[in-house]
Write a structure and sequence with these properties.
Elements: H1 3-20, H2 29-57, H3 59-65, H4 70-73, H5 78-99, H6 101-119, H7 127-144, H8 151-154, H9 159-172, H10 181-204, H11 208-231, H12 235-247, H13 249-259, H14 263-270, H15 272-282
Helix pairs in contact: 1-2, 1-7, 1-13, 1-14, 1-15, 2-5, 2-6, 5-6, 6-7, 7-9, 9-10, 9-12, 10-11, 10-13, 11-12, 11-13, 13-14
Length: about 290
């Protein structure tokens, strides 16, 4: 299920909620805490289920390339893993429908997109990374959908995580056998585009100074291992670049919250970083 990664998906949803302006509404705590919890449970189910199906569809290949994964090791059977994946995806979809219909439909599309990626998308050089990025982009919108009317205003924010995750997915293809410096350079350019996009939004919202507090560590976390991988594009270095890129999503999501004026929530999102780093030591990230 990649627990460390699931924490980053919760950060996606919290960032989406911040973008929607949900916390700027007046109302009782009880009025907003339940939908927030439901969306967090939804993304846990969607991400966890998607990753489980990744291992289900890759079971035969993992016997050769990833023998340390649970299915090749015999810790869990394919049948059991499939059942777990179905339960998690259904949990993600059903809890989202309890928030509102639009959230439920978004969760359904995320679940379908995850299955499509795991079964077919990952084998396509261009559509695969795009497919994976779409899952994250929709996950950000899942948070925004807590206020359905805000989706019409902020649908475009999904483009940024699509670009970012597509670049990480592209890098990850060299994780086992090594990669090419050219693709890593291209990923670096996409990283720069992501940073500039959030900076532009923060300037527009007059929150650039606080947003830079989160963008600087984000940039350091993704570029330091990427530069090392470019110099030596071996599997080990590429794996570290991918791992850093995934965990750095917490900084990215904190940047989103700050760019839209929710600095308090940005720091709250940042509190997820120690948990994700701890889980990354206990469980595989890639």
């Amino acid at each position: 299920m990649r627990p460390a990664n699931i924490v980053t998906s919760i950060a996606d949803v919290l960032a989406g909620v911040a973008i929607s302006g949900f916390f700027m509404q007046q109302g009782l705590l009880a009025d907003w805490i339940l939908p927030l919890i439901l969306l967090c449970i939804s993304t846990i189910g969607l991400y966890g289920g998607g990753v489980v199906f990744n291992d289900v569809f890759d079971a035969e290949l993992d016997k050769i390339e990833r023998p340390e994964r649970p299915i090749p090791m015999g810790i869990i059977t394919i049948k059991e893993a499939t059942l777990l994946g179905i339960i998690l995806l259904l949990m993600g979809i059903i809890t989202a429908f309890f928030v509102n219909l639009v959230s439920g439909f978004l969760a359904t599309i995320i679940a379908v997109s995850a299955i499509v990626y795991n079964k077919w998308g990952k084998h396509r050089s261009f559509l695969g990374p795009l497919n994976m990025g779409l899952c994250r982009g929709l996950n950000l919108l899942l948070g925004v959908s807590i206020l359905v009317t805000q989706l019409n205003l902020y649908w475009y924010v999904a483009i940024v995580p699509i670009i970012y995750i597509a670049s990480i997915t592209m890098i990850s293809r060299g994780e086992v056998h090594g990669g090419k410096s050219q693709s890593l350079y291209f990923a670096g350019l996409l990283y720069i585009l992501v940073i500039l996009s959030i900076l532009f939004i923060s300037f527009y919202n007059k929150s650039e100074f606080l947003t830079l507090l989160f963008l600087f560590p984000f940039a350091a976390m993704i570029f330091i291992p990427l530069v090392k991988a470019i110099r030596q594009p071996v599997g080990k270095n590429i794996g570290k670049a991918v791992k850093a890129g995934v965990i750095a999503l917490i900084f990215l999501n904190a940047s989103w919250a700050s760019a839209f004026g929710s600095t308090g929530l940005a720091f709250l999102i940042l509190l997820l970083m120690p948990l994700s780093l701890y889980l990354a030591k206990k469980f595989s990230v890639t």
